[in-house]
Amino acid sequence: MNRRLFARAALITSALVSAAAPTLAQNYPTKPVTVIVPFAAGGGSDNIARLVVAKLGEHSGKTFIIDNRGGAGTNIGNELAARATPDGYTLLLGQITLSINPYLYSNLKYNPEKDFVPVAHIATAPTVLVVRASSPFKTVSDVVAAAKASPGKLNFGSGGAGTSVHLGGELFKLLTKTSMTHVPYKGSAPAVTDLIGGQIDMIFDTASSALPHIKGGRVRALAVTGSVRLQELPNVPTFAEEGLKDFDVPVWYGILAPAGTPAPVVQWLNSELNAVLKDSAVSERLVAIGAVPVGGTPAQMADFMKAQAERWAKVVKEGNVKLDY
């Protein structure tokens, strides 16, 4: 084929794709869409996913199904989503671990930047340090003093090795120059259960996961990340107020699709999700469970993820944290 014919064929192909795009978006989805949540059911990420996905189905009139695939610091669920057919019928509730894992695991089997396309930034949530209600620790200073008095004796749980709350604990150790033992779980829910039962001393958890237990009086919050106090926990100080102004671990949530998912499908999903986040029933519920609705374009989410990756690469390096799965 000569150059002129090749160019003409390319133009025709481009025109056909452009013409087909609206039809593709209008027809999608014609069957249930699976949203993989890389955490066990019942935790903060799962709660946010179920709230948004349920409203997405209601708003669009389509069927969306949650598939919990917890474990390995979200790598099991992330890898499953990365390998899925890029047709829009498998999505991922991406979390801050996508910004952390490339620097944490030497044998990662997926590349967050290359294997996924951002769809929509759903929400962000602060991290909270929580102890059981009967704990002798009343302040962050109490924890630091005990950790320094008996290095390695205290332990902290998290929703999984390599998760943001695990790295939050590692950052806490770096900033306070203390030594504590990390106890990973397959999700926040089982970690909170063991905290209440006295099997672990404390957890760094997302506010969205910990709030019900805090309000129920089963656990006590010592501090939250962020520049201001959480609306739902007005009596809990920020870490900055407790003397740790550099301790900030905002957890983000977003919907992603496997790389190669048709652009019209991504745009349709983005539009639907932004509409869902503007629904007062959803936004007010997100705030009530300790999260802040975000929204925006796929490009804005991509830029945000890049900035987060740069931040956590530094934390992992300085903390000398490496994991395998």
TrEMBL record:
The organism's place on the tree of life at top rank: Bacteria
Concerning InterPro entries, the annotation shows: BUG, Bug_dom1
Q: Does the keyword Transmembrane apply?
A: no
Q: Keyword set for this entry?
A: Signal
Where does the UniProt annotation place the signal sequence?
1-25
| Keyword field contains Signal | yes
Q: What is this protein called?
A: Bug family tripartite tricarboxylate transporter substrate binding protein
- State the species of origin: Ottowia pentelensis
